[in-house]
Design goal:
mainly beta; Neuraminidase; about 35% strand
């Protein structure tokens, strides 16, 4: 789902200070690896997990209850083990066949519960993808092309957790979003920086001066920084 020509950009966001560094002792990731020896890799991605111990990392384990026959991606974990992730499984907001929605599964008695759709307050009839959940679950940053106030194709939005209910998502605005794609948000451990991916052009704004060849090459090669 990522567009060609993506580049890393970052922006400072002061409103999202929280316990950014999750203390969850697991690495949660997506993979197309087969579940049995001798099988071919899957066409889509599943969610896997591996635990960190004093002696190193355990072998990766596929978390069956989190996965479906469709794609799962971009897991984000809270301090208490709740996993937020994207999925095209059935039960989404667009059609019975499923759409790109954000889901959540809670850890209860050391087992994950059946994933629940985050509902219409977050998910739209469009594609809602790549949610970053604060470790204390106080806010959610995600990308969507389903809201009427998008600047481009996919914009970044934020929703706050108010006593267990999500607030109406707010567009992060022109200082962050562009006419291109913005997605894959992550915050620095100190909460000062929001890192995300964008395929915006370095020439979205007028140049201050005429560039020579070397300056032009550097402009194309360098990350775009707001």
């Amino acid at each position: 789902m990522e567009p060609a020509g993506s580049c890393l950009v970052f922006w400072t966001i002061q409103r999202c200070r929280s316990s950014i560094q999750s203390r969850w002792p697991y690495n949660v990731f997506i993979s197309t690896r087969p579940t049995k020896e001798g099988q071919l890799p899957k066409e889509g991605t599943d969610i896997w997990m591996m635990q960190k111990r004093s002696t190193g990392w355990d072998d990766p384990q596929r978390v069956a209850i989190l996965n479906s026959d469709n794609l799962e991606w971009f897991p984000s974990v809270t301090d208490n083990g709740t996993i937020y992730f994207g999925s095209e499984r059935q039960g989404g907001n667009l059609e019975p066949k499923g759409t790109s929605d954000l889901w959540r599964s809670r850890l209860v008695n050391e087992k994950y519960t059946e994933p629940e759709n985050l509902g219409n307050i977050i998910n739209t009839p469009g594609n809602d993808i790549e949610g970053y959940i604060a470790p204390d679950e106080s806010f959610l940053i995600f990308s969507s092309n389903g809201y009427k106030n998008t600047r481009g194709t996919y914009d970044l939005y934020i929703s706050y957790n108010r006593e267990g209910a999500w607030t109406k998502p707010q567009n992060l605005g022109d200082m962050i979003n562009s006419e291109g794609w913005e997605f894959g948000a992550k915050l620095s451990p100190d909460g000062k920086y929001l890192f995300f991916t964008s395929n915006r052009s370095p020439f979205n704004h007028p140049l201050e001066k005429r560039l020579d060849y070397e300056e032009l090459i550097r402009k194309f090669a360098a990350p775009v920084m707001a």
